[in-house]
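Task card 7
Instruction: Convert sequence to structure tokens.
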Amino acid sequence: MKIKIEKSLLKNILEKVQSLTNNKTSFPITKNIIIEAKENNCISFLATNLISSFYAVKETEVQKKGKIALNALKLFEIVKFYPDTHIEIEEIDDQWIKIGQNDVIYNIVGVIPDDFPDVMEEYKIDENYEYIEIDGNEIKKGLSIANLSNYEEHDSKPFITGFYLGFIKDNEKNISRMYSTNRASLTKYDIYMENDILEKFSNQNIVIPKNIIQSLNAIITDSKIKLTFTEKNLIIKQDHEYFCTSLYENKFPDCNAIFNTENFNLIKLNKTEFTDILKRMSIIVEDKNPIVFFKFSDNNLLINTSNHEIGESKEESKIDYQGEEIKTSFNPKIILKFIKYIEEENLLFYIKDNKSNCIIKGMEDNNYTFTLMPMVM
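Output:
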């Protein structure tokens, strides 16, 4: 095999596969990337961790056909610091690969590409699949929000270690909806879509492992992507690049009722002021039990916390609330983590009573909502 390829193109591909190939594994060959030079100046790349796979087809100068397998991390580091705009890659002997030309040359030993697991048949990437188009930037934001609901190592339920992705029609609007949860919080993120939802996608209950979120965020770079599902896999397509991952077979619980604010008290908060208060409280809270106490009364919020090693803090703030007094407690660091993604200044804070969960969203933006259980007082 012998090719000449743009450094920027190769670097971009290698950046996208690092989260797949750098994982701890009992199958060391998956730390490599397969590069195959084909006819018509066509080259393909393949990387996998046996749960998820990346496959791409690009155009470049092919001087000799062939297939090689190289350590993806070492190849990325070579390409990252390579001084020229184009790089030559040539197999000079069995598994010995020459990278570079002129004054900068590496001779790297590869592995036998035929020993690489055959994942292409399993994922069955097919141009004829029905795809649905979705905003790439919006799906990346949704993935980041889904990743906020971290889970413990001992959690085994798929709906906790995974997140929900579905497609619904609500009030004549086409929506891609994402849910993510742990034992104390639940997030909902809606992406409003321009195209009608195909029958195949309507009301699907798809559960995707959270541990692929990092890979997805690295791979999705286009403003528009296409995605589809097979019986067992999610497939994302952009610019002749494909990302495929296994899905959980279990269903995600119906979460719609959890976000019903009927009979809840409504409190209006200024995001900047509320954020600043929580940050000040976070200085004092205990690391192992980061609890802050809230007391909501007529147009007033009293917040306090204590730490037996440091001291205590108390703060009052004027708010927009008329209702019965409510005393509750939450982890301020978790609230800060969630409200970071609300992109407006006015917050709606819903709470029913002293023991209920809170529901928080922006005043105008209905795309993103989260709910949080109180801490034990």
